[in-house]
Amino acid sequence: MKPESEKYNEVLNLLRKSKPVLDSTDDIEREVIKRISKVNSSGLRLSGVLDFLFSWVYIGWVRRTLIAASAALVLIFIYQQAIILKRIDAISRQTVVTDKENLFTHSDEIAKLLMVYRNSGKRFPSKTITISESQMNELLESVKELQIKYKDLENLIEGDPELKKLVHKKLIENNNNNLNL
Amino acid sequence: MIDLQLIEECRGGNFNNFRKLVELTSPFAYSVAFRMLGNEDQAKDVVQETMVTIWQKLKKIKTAEVYKTWIYRIVVNKCYDEMRKRKRNPESVADEQTWGLISNRISEGPSPALENDETARIISILTERLSTKQKAVFVLSDLEGMSNDEISEITGISKSAVKANLYHARKSISEKVEKYL
Fold it and tell me: Which residues contact A164 (CB under 8 A, 6 or more apart)?
């Protein structure tokens, strides 16, 4: 079916010919301007409140003072952080000596412990025995001596296969005896 | 004639220039609104709201060429809103009287244009069963004489959808005209 019939076209022509007439644009103009002014004035009112609350930030010396204060605060914060980091670092370097800790496991560790002992102002936790510096040095010397002797013994055993075999055998016997016990 | 200079001056917040813009824009905005809504007061409200929207969003306009399309788009969208509101409160149309009026006017031959209220009644009765999109497409195409491209741009629907909506609108109106005239 063709939608546009003759009658349809007649009705359409009648409507086309009758273009709606806006009697006067004055009313519309007036109403539109009134509404726009209302919108603008409410916007102005809001900006007035904001000005009242925050206009002081536009005063020159206040702005400069605020900038200086904020810069000072930032510097103080950075300084404080640096101090805190330094302290944390110092604390992490301090060795906490407990009863179960094996103090002398390696020669490097001995040196480290000695340094901590010296840096810590010769203070130890309350439950530990306090020793003098000379005693500590004596102890370290004897440990060093023992390590040298141990090294010599090791070299001696490595150089003589018979001795090595004998030591090996003795060690196994000792281990077995320990297990039996 | 609406040119970019006038739009630029309105952007600067000049009410006098905006009055001129309202004067130039209102007639064609009213024509579309009236033909879509079939009610003088509602059409005037739509024009007012359209002009307020224009004032608020005038910054978006880059060229005078797009201004008219933009206005039509705003008007059509405002009419959609109005029609949605009206769906909740449908108005009854005096069918017989209106069909009699159409019949008389057509039989009178080349007669003067219809009064606004007569046009409103006829449009209402012809388009009462159309969807909002069909109504918009029918008004823009058959009454305002726009091309499918323009309608597609204004309504935001595809060209094929414009054609389909126009076909259904014409068919529906044609069937009514055939039945009652």
Answer: A157, A158
